[in-house]
Design a protein that fits this description.
single chain; alpha+beta; six-stranded antiparallel sheet; globular; Papain-like_cys_pep_sf
Length: about 250
């Protein structure tokens, strides 16, 4: 049987190499989507983005729209002295925008974004299933050290956006309980103001401020990317920059 891919790992990295030109692979760690490989390409996952202990890497093989195989591998993360990076405050409505990614090759191109809903928690659309989730701010900081933190100067506006995100997550959970997977995580082009077809990280921020606080971020291209969010917030007089790591940089205008 022809070998279809090569999977290797070191202390810091997992490397996946696709050997089949006309196939696609979708990678998940502990059921969370981390990236795709199309054609004869490769990608690297940084182990440091994951917590200490054992994790399951799932590789889904796809030809066209047909899933033709699944492969499961276990890997262990052993890190020394993960430092606590909570050296500043957070409040509802703060926007975190990262230019780095769990998938190394996408750093500077894709990025990620999340919305703080309290001093310790945020809501994000990290990829895969579930499409929307609540998680700790701490895990975002550890996964995405190259990020900026923006805060609306009007505290009430931020609180309204955060409450909208909380309500959005609750409605999403109710949809799942009723057997409806709406919205789904997808970067496909869609009406930006429609919350129920597709969602992705920076669109969630756009929706929260648009529907919750009546504040609309301008969009220069067909989809609203983390780069758009970073560029707008850096210049928006209604927001202030609380923190920006020195390596934050987007390589293309998306």
């Amino acid at each position: 049987m022809m070998k279809k891919f090569i999977l290797t790992q070191s202390f810091h990295w997992i490397k996946f190499v696709n050997l089949v030109p006309h196939s696609s692979y979708h990678l998940y760690v502990d059921n969370h989507f981390v990236g795709s490989v199309h054609g004869a390409n490769e990608m690297k996952l940084k182990k440091g983005y994951f917590s200490n202990g054992k994790h399951v890497l799932t590789i889904i093989e796809q030809e066209g729209q047909l899933i033709v195989g699944q492969h499961h591998f276990t890997f262990t993360v052993k890190q020394k002295g993960i430092r606590n990076v909570r050296d500043r405050t957070f409040q509802a409505g703060d926007i975190l925008v990262a230019s780095d990614n769990v998938l190394q090759e996408m750093t500077g191109y894709m990025g990620h974004a999340a919305l703080a809903i309290s001093e310790d928690e945020l809501i994000e659309s990290p990829g895969g299933f579930p499409a929307i989730k609540q998680d700790s701010i701490q895990q975002f900081l550890e996964k995405h050290p190259e990020h900026a933190q923006f805060r609306p100067k009007n505290k009430e506006m931020g609180e309204k956006a955060a409450q909208n995100a909380i309500d959005y997550l609750q409605e999403y959970k109710e949809n799942l309980n009723n057997g409806e997977q709406k919205p789904v995580f997808n970067f496909a082009l869609s009406n930006l103001s429609d919350p129920w077809q597709y969602v992705y990280c920076s669109k969630l921020i756009w929706l929260s401020y648009y529907h919750g606080a009546g504040y609309e971020f301008e969009n220069d291209h067909l989809w609203f990317s983390p780069e758009d969010l970073y560029t707008i917030l850096s210049e928006d007089e209604n927001f202030k920059t609380v923190y920006e790591q020195e390596n934050v940089s987007f390589k293309v205008d998306t």
